[in-house]
Write a structure and sequence with these properties.
Blueprint (H helix, E strand, L loop, with lengths): L6 E4 L4 E3 L9 E5 L6 H10 L7 E5 L3 H11 L4 E4 L4 H5 L7 H4 L2 H11 L17 E5 L5 E6 L9 H12 L1
Amino acid sequence: MTAPEDRITLHTGEQLLLSSLYAEKPLALIFLRHLGCVFCRVVVDDLKNRPDLNIVFVALEGVEEIAEFKVEHGSPHTFICDTDKSLHEAFGMKQGGWGQIINRETFKAGLEVSKKGYTLNKPTSDPMMLSGVFIIGKGGEVFCEHRAKHAADNPTPELIAAELAKAAI
């Protein structure tokens, strides 16, 4: 798979080509379910201590909501506003069913993150959307992809860093 040559809008309101984000080094493009998703907030928080990684989050919310979320979570990473779901569609991101949103794995993961102080928040856009991670090389080739099987199915920061390192070789 090759990354699409889409025009995107960043959390700053700036518009540019997606390819500009991976022109100099491989990119981890991380699709978030919605900004109220507890598991997505954990992913953003877990990766905020890795400003060295070329990570860009994709969210369905608008510029103002994402900018506020970015500040609230102290993330050094860039966010893409995909309010029309065009980038989600280009990467084949799908909505899940209730069995993928509420199941044994999500319940267990929810208990674990609640021990770290995370709570459920109100959905901010599409609560049925599933997340995903795509590692894109400098030429636009997708080296690795992870499509969530359920709401809590997110790769670890260590795995994301390892896949970015492999794509850089």
